[in-house]
Amino acid sequence: MTTHQWKHKDLCALADHTPDELITILDTAKAFKGVGERNLKKVPALRGKTLVNFFIEPSTRTRISFELAAMRLSADVINISASASSLEKGETLLDTARNLEALRADLIVIRHQSAGSARFLADRLNASVINAGDGAHEHPTQGLLDAFTIREKLGYIKGVHVAIVGDILFSRVARSNIQLLTKLGAEVTLVGPSTLVPATFACLGVKLVHSIDEVLEEVDVINLLRIQYERQRKEYFPGLGEYTARFGLTKKRAERIKPECLIMHPGPMNRGIEIDSDVADGRGSVILDQVTNGLAVRMAVLYLCSGGAPFAPVTPSATDSLS
Amino acid sequence: MNASLHIKGGRIIDPANGIDRIGDLFVRDGIIVDSLPKNEKGERGAEVIDATGKVVSPGLIDIHVHFREPGQSHKETIATGARCAAAGGFTTVVCMPNTSPVADSPATIAWIQERAASTACVNVFCTGAITKGLAGEEMAPIGALAAAGVVALTDDGRCVQNHGVMRRAVEYARHYGLPVMDHCQETTLSADGVMNEGEWSTRLGLPGWPSLAEDLIVARNILLAEETGHPIHCQHISSARSVRLLREARQRGVPITAEACPHHIALTDGELKNFDTNFKMNPPLRTQADIDEIIAGISDGTITILASDHAPHATYEKEVEFDRAPFGILGLETELALFLEILLHQRKALTLPQILGMLTVNPAKFLRLDRGTLSTGAPADITILDPDHAWTVDKNESSSLSRNTPFHGHSLRGRALTTIVGGKVVWDLESGFRS
Ligand SMILES: [Zn+2]
Ligand SMILES: [Zn+2]
Question: CA-based Rg of chain A, rounded to a whole angstrom?
């Protein structure tokens, strides 16, 4: 195995990266996972660097995960929300970005409701820009942590059959997962109502299925997305009851899946809607592993984008050399 | 300034009269004449323009431009928009009514006409709104707008969603002989869409604007034109199915027409892969299959008019998140070159006289403008051009107040060399503007 160089300042979309680069991130994350398992959970890799968590669309989970990842790398962290920035006062994203630049931020983690906003900043700033979710476009670190978890639990990604279930049309998690998994040789099936899994998705090299019952027995991973039924989504499916009846991973359905099948969810879960509570907490569920792995993946991304050398495929000594 | 012009030795192409010959063209007191009196020929009187090796065309006409005055003069003024037109070889333009205030009253039309008369270096005609405030609810004072001199009605930028309102507006406009132009967009289908719905909106996670939203209104307009017997013109056609609907309707004799814009045959939605807002326009860039059908429609006479939809926006307005950026791009200065590059040089879809016909006599006839021809006695609006002139688009050389072109850096063939309005040279490539 060779370790590939990581030459990018930013991580905006997994669609932009080669399979080798994506493997590099996963390998580096594996090395960093060891850090979190030690007593002293800190390495000096980003000492003296400043990271700005720029969350225009709120997300406590992702923000905390990036914050903790940065702290474990010894970076200084500032959190900025929409209300704390001047965006609410009519300032443009570009002006805000220039202000961040003037503060000499080294890394900017952005969460924003508009697709392409991370790329917008990345193209205009010297700082590294990490996309923490841009509209329905991508959520690269979520895709990476999902792939990391599959690789960790099953040992490989190539040939794994993954079902992504739910609101695919509006899901950045789905898009990042599709990019990464198909590039690494997994077989991906999208499952959901035909309105939320429209035919155009076939161009991404995935299979489309409009009933969860068709795939239960054959998949190795079921990744259940959070289903939302607010005002704008009402025209896409008839209601939550019907959704659960047709697409929910109920206890009864869970009895039909392969014994080694992984059950994933990016959170926050709607217990009883896309997933039964017992299933979420039961055998095969790796939902909390995903959270833990999110930290390792984000450490790797922050480290690589700020110029750190990729780690060789992990050996215990590689992890030790971090301290 | 000489009152007479002697354009020598050019290839005179006058599609209105089926003329394509090498020869001389004479102008006196702003009118095209058969010859000049002896004492005005040559060095002694008339200004002589050597057009050897060049094409002499009726002044080009663009029936779809946005000049942003009144109300948004930081994007463009009638004066700067007219300079873009002249630099692109256009001697006549037709302004859309989505100004601020909306051009839905005789007072606003009079203001625009006055402004154009005092500041524009080309002819500027106005359209009036179909509905008050472009709101799609109440008819604008169409009779008064007709009296004020508008050449057509349109709610461009918006589309009248209420079919009852649209039907009555078309019936009402018929009485005044005013053609109705329509921006075809069914808004429950386009919803929040900011780009073509398809492979690229799927990849980019941007809300899609399906071509179905255009097709449905094109079909509506065909039925209304057929029902009322009054012409409806579908603006900036972007989809293959719209072209097929129009083709079938025109074969049946329905009084429906359509125009195509350069960007819809030059670029596909794949250009949006980097979220560059200079590729954000309405209707959106679509697919290669759509491009092929639009070009087929231009070749077979389904689409008879070429236009730019020149839509300036300030850089700071475009330099925002993709979904928040305004729709629209500059058009007038690159229009001729793009049509020649694609339709003449690359696709060989039309001859040069056919292309010039779609930029001169066809739009003139449609809006009943006394222009678009080199007939004796016609206003001396003339464009001298070189269909092979190779150049590279540089947005910084634009006469517009805005810079929103997706064609910056593109190498194109074909360019206007001299633009003559009412017998006066207003611009030429070598020396720029004359005033
Ligand atoms: Zn329009
Ligand atoms: Zn327009």
Answer: 19
Residue B20: its H or E element: strand B19-28
Q: Which residues surround ligand 2, an ion (CB under 5 A)?
A: B 156, 309
pLDDT at B174 > cutoff 70: yes
Tens digits of per-residue pLDDT, A65-85? 999 999 999 999 999 887 666
CA–CA distances in Å: residue A78 to residues A50, A66, A100: 8, 11, 11
Does B70 sit behind a cis peptide bond, omega within 30 degrees of 0 on the bond before it? yes
What digits encode the pLDDT tens for the residues B408-425?
Answer: 999 999 999 999 999 999
Nearest-by-CA chain A residue for B197: A200
Burial grade of A268 (CB within 10 A; 0-12, 13-18, 19 or more): exposed
Average pLDDT, chain B: 97
C-alpha distances (whole Å) from B265 to each of A86, B19, B285, B329 are: 41, 28, 9, 14
Side-chain half-sphere CA neighbours of A304 within 13 A: 30
Q: Tens digits of per-residue pLDDT, A209-242?
A: 999 999 999 999 999 999 987 766 778 999 999 9
Kindly list the distances between the CA atom of residue B144 and the CA atoms of B134, B139, B370, B403, in Å, as whole numbers in the listed order. Answer: 16, 12, 22, 36
Across the beta sheet with B123-128, the strand order is: B60-65, B90-95, B123-128, B152-154, B180-182, B232-234, B256-260, B305-306
Question: How far is residue B163's CA from residue A200's CA, in Å, rounded to a whole number?
Answer: 31
Spatial distance between the Cα atoms of A36 and B172, rounded to a whole number of angstroms: 75
For every residue of A226-261, DSSP letters joined together read: PP--SGGGTTTSS-HHHHHHHH-B-HHHHTTS-TT-
What is the Å distance from ligand 1's center to B111 Cα?
23
Structure tokens at B243: 């072209």
Judge whether B271 is closer than 8 Å to chain A, CB to CB.
Answer: no
**Does the annotation count B309 as an active-site position?**
yes
Q: What's the pLDDT score for residue A41?
A: 81
* Rounded alpha-carbon distances, angstroms, from residue B211 to B184, B195, B280, B375: 10, 10, 15, 41
Confidence tier at A98 by pLDDT (50, 70, 90): confident
ipTM given for this complex? 0.93
Q: Does the structure show a pLDDT above 80 at A150?
A: yes
Contact A108, A121 (CB under 8 A): yes
Q: How far is the CA of B235 from the centre of ligand 1 (A)?
A: 6
What is the dihedral sign for C-alpha B79, B80, B86, B92?
A: negative
Q: Residue B319: its chain A contacts at CB < 8 A?
A: 92, 94
Residue type (1 letter), A281: D
Do residue B203 and residue A119 have CB atoms under 8 angstroms apart?
Answer: no
Query: Is the pLDDT confidence value at B238 over 80?
Result: yes
Residue-wise pLDDT tens digits, B304-342:
999 999 999 999 999 999 999 999 999 999 999 999 999
In chain A, whose CA is at the least distance from the CA of B323? A114
How remote is the CA of residue B349 from the centroid of ligand 2, in Å? 25
Distance CA(A140)–CA(A43), nearest Å, equals: 24
